[in-house]
Amino acid sequence: MTIDGKTVYHTGDTALTVEMQLLEGRVDLMLVPIGDNYTMGVEDAVRAVAFVKPKIVIPMHYNTWEVIRADPRAFQRDVGNQAQVVILAPGESYQLS
Q1: Using CA atoms, how far apart are residues 81 and 94, in angstroms rounded to an integer?
Q2: 27-60 confidence digits (pLDDT tens)
Q3: Residue boundaries of the structural domains of the chain
Q4: Res 38: pLDDT
Q5: Does domain 2-66+73-85 fall into CATH 3.40.50.1970?
């Protein structure tokens, strides 16, 4: 979705898909699941970031149940300098400027 000239890609509850490469370089903010069991895990989410090349990425859909336990800091470490990783606490918000 594009609002005020900024493009946000909310991947939803999904797995890694090769079609994500079609968005390469066109996304300002990407929200990506890292919880694994029902969605992408950290490794596939890092690959999704490499496919899309967003400026900013927010990990989501993790640590609400034991079955989707994941470490957002490991995701941040593995993304490295591919994108800015913003880790939000429950209830916290992020304003894209």
Answers
A1: 20
A2: 999 999 999 998 999 999 999 999 999 999 999 9
A3: 2-66+73-85
A4: 87
A5: no
